[in-house]
Amino acid sequence: MILIVLGGLFELDRTAVIQSLVSEPIVVAPIAGWIVGEPVLGLKLGVLLQLFFLGNVSIGGSTPPDGALAALVAAGSAGLSGADHRVSIEALSAGSAFILMIPASRLGRLVENALKEQNVALAHDADGRVMKEGAKAIEKIVHRRIFSLFLIWAGVSGLAVGGGAVLLNLVFRFIPEGVSAALESAGRLLPLIAAGVALSAIRLRRANWWFAAACLVLLVVSAALGR
Amino acid sequence: MTGNMSGEQKEISVRAWAQALARSFLIQSVWNNERMQNIGFAYSISPLINSGGEEENRRKIEAHLEFFNTNPYFASAVIGAVGRMEGDRRGAEDVRSFKRSLMGPFGALGDSLFWCSMKPAAALVGVSIAIGGRMLWAIVATLVIYNSLHLWARLWGFYNGASLGRWMLYRFTRIRFARSAALLGLTTAVLLAWVTVWGGIWGDPLSAVIGGHYLVAGAIGSGIVLLSSMAIGRGMGAETLFYLAGGIALAASLTIG
Predict the structure, then answer these.
(1) Least CB–CB distance from B32: residue in A47, A123, A138
(2) A 147-176: CB under 8 A from B
(3) At residue B45, does pLDDT exceed 90?
(4) CA nearest to A98 within chain B
């Protein structure tokens, strides 16, 4: 229940109110993980998803994939699936990222686009009502919309987390032990791939060169310190 | 900001200014594909429209239902300035052209400064703390760094808009947006290098597999990050790369055992 309410609030922050970064994966996943009793898993997924979705920005009228819903679903479902008794945290977080992260982010984008389209009708409604009711009409439209957005996003979050948990439970119930061990090893590569995605999103001329130079300096310092 | 003005100017109460500022936080609430932030703008500006006649007020609010879209943080500056212009009883065409001329540049500057530069930098500070296992500090650092700057931008923009009206543009020209964005981009790249080489982004066990050599692990890690970034630069989708690299790693792990 707390996850559902938080899902509504995170999505409100991301799409409609304030935009305070509360809806970034590095905030959402650890909180969701902590709520379902898996703080370490939440933290691991938070790092991975934040790097992957670092360049997700809504410029102009674009709708990027929804990193907040992806983080909530990946961490919340993994914790609620009960699969942590069968496999390690590393395998569970990699499996959750593999199976749920991208579909959840796409679901969020789909819902957001539908809501933006729905808002067109509200804009027309405002045209018709403002000359009759004045500013009160706009106030009513905005307040009701914020409330309905909260309910819609809370519902979507609840369904997505619940569905994700059932799916993960099924997958990890029937997965052979060798595969979950391989998933654990392969999962270590995922943050690096996500970091590559993050690097490609940095708005800086020759970002790759700057990154390589910084890595080189840090490696030389590491060598000098004997690490 | 309370305008105790003579002649044509209209006094706007501090309460109305505060209401408009608070409402500017909701400017995206009814974002739509047709006129984007139009309802949010009309909602935010309405406390500042009080010309005396109800009919005239309604007409002015209706005029603000036209297309509007800019960066939500810099929108407060436009709302403040338009509020001042409305209070000064500037002509409808003046207000309209002012809004139209500002929303594009403010959108581009705000998006590049906040979304594309400040957000990644603040989030990466959080990531670098989270890798050390400090969940609460990771969340607090991300939110405090970003929001202290974002709230300052909202308040500063609104205050300048409300006090200077259309002349607030001169305040904005003093900010070196391009340099700030480049500096933040550089910080983000260095932070990313730090978490890759020293932050143990892929965990200690793998370093142990490579014989406990952090140096080797760091070098291989940086190489993989660079290759991934270059693959995306060459047109590969991030999702495709994620599944492809993950799938190959999974298959390799299964084969090697």
Answers:
(1) A123
(2) 149
(3) yes
(4) B243
**What ipTM, to 2 d.p.?**
0.91
**Partner residue opposite A141 with nearest CB, options B39, B123, B127:** B39
Do B205 and B105 share a structural domain? no
In A, which residues are within 8 Å of B24 by CB distance? Answer: none
Flag whether residue B150 sits within 8 Å of chain A, measured between CB atoms.
yes
Chain A contact for B246 (CB, 8 A cutoff)? yes
- Nearest residue in chain A measured CA to CA from B53: A134
Burial of A112 (0-12, 13-18, 19+ CB in 10 A): buried
CA distance B211 to B13: 70
Domain membership of residue B200 as a residue range = 179-256
**B53/B139 same-domain check:** yes
Last residue of a domain, one of B124, B146, B175: B175
Residue B5 maps to a domain: no
Q: B177 and chain A: CB distance < 8 Å anywhere?
A: no
CA distance B224 to B226: 5
CB-CB under 8 Å, B185 with A204: yes
Q: Does B218 lie in the same domain as B121?
A: no
Rounded to the nearest angstrom, the minimum Cα separation between A82 and chain B is: 22
User: Which of A43, A185, A219 has its CB closest to that of B253?
Assistant: A185
Residues from chain A that touch B189, judged by Cβ atoms under 8 A, are: 199, 202, 204, 207, 210-211, 214
B164 in the same domain as B184:
no
**Number of CB atoms found within 10 A of residue B247's CB:** 12
In a domain, B3, yes or no: no
Total structural domains within chain B: 2
Per the CB < 8 A criterion, the answer to whether A7 and A155 are in contact is no
Q: Are B65 and B32 in contact (CB under 8 A)?
A: no
Identify whether B188 is part of a domain: yes
Please choose, from the candidates B250, B253, B257, B198, the residue with its C-alpha nearest in 3D space to the C-alpha of residue B222: B198
Q: Three-class SS of residue B68?
A: strand
Question: What Cα–Cα distance (Å) separates residue A131 from each residue in A142, B66, B128, B223?
Answer: 17, 14, 53, 62
> How does pLDDT run across B33-42, given as a tens digit for each residue?
999 999 999 9
Task: Tell me, yes or no, whether B80 and B48 share the same domain.
Answer: yes
Same domain, B92 and B186: no
Per-residue pLDDT, A32? 96
Residue A81, classed as helix, strand or coil, is coil
- The model's pTM is 0.90
Q: Taking residues B250-255, report their average pLDDT.
A: 82
